[in-house]
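Anyone have tokens for LysR family transcriptional regulator? Sequence:
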Amino acid sequence: MTGSEVSPSFRLAYVPGVTPAKWVRIWNERLPDIPLHLVAVPAAEACDVLLGGDADAGFVRLPLPAERTDFSAIPLYTETTVVVIPKDHVVAAVEEVTTEDLADEIVLHPLDDVLGWERLPGRPAIERPATTADAVELVAAGIGVLAVPQSLARLHHRKDLTYRPLTDAPQSRVALSWPEDATTDMVEDFIGIVRGRTVNSSRGRTQPQAEARSPKAPAKSPAKGQGKAQPKGKRPGAGGGAQRKAAAGKSPRGGAGGAKRGKPRRRS
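Reply: yep, here.
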């Protein structure tokens, strides 16, 4: 390799709450010679990172901004929305809540919110927290409650906080996305991994289908004499009829088997 050549690598962006470990492990098993580098990005900056060429593909949250029409996206899963509360909060006594149950609560709305509320439940805070992490700190201080995807509640877990499902809240969908005009071979490889294709898939590059298939066995030639009439007297079971007649006490020619022949007549 010359000094001007660059070793190939795959850069994968991911937003907070997404755990790409499973797919990274499969990549490393199938393509050990191509390192995969993870790039952590805020949800609001994921598209800019991909368009700027700082990552080849990324796990993002849907919907993408309306003006981003130059991206391809494969939706992967939808997260449960939860409300983060202090452990001694009254809501902690139930298994799940609705937005109506939060009508009297101050519901924090951070600037990096990913739920896209049309109408935020509860009462608004005087000031919006800058980040979800800041909002979690305010919940711990008893200033309000916070609605987020469950993965973010786990990411910012604290011993003094808990969460409950918020059944009628908007939900966040996670997708694999990349610029449409940058669908490289390595992007195709990663798409195959995310979609669960096997290493022998016809659409994968790691092992072309023609190589993965075992060679077809040559057609067997007919056995010698197969399809031809067998020689007379050589067919399986030939003579069986005669044997059966003999067993019944009859000779093969129709006479009684074992009967004495008549005396010859005298000539006059």
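Confidence is low (pLDDT under 50) at residues 206-219, 233-260.
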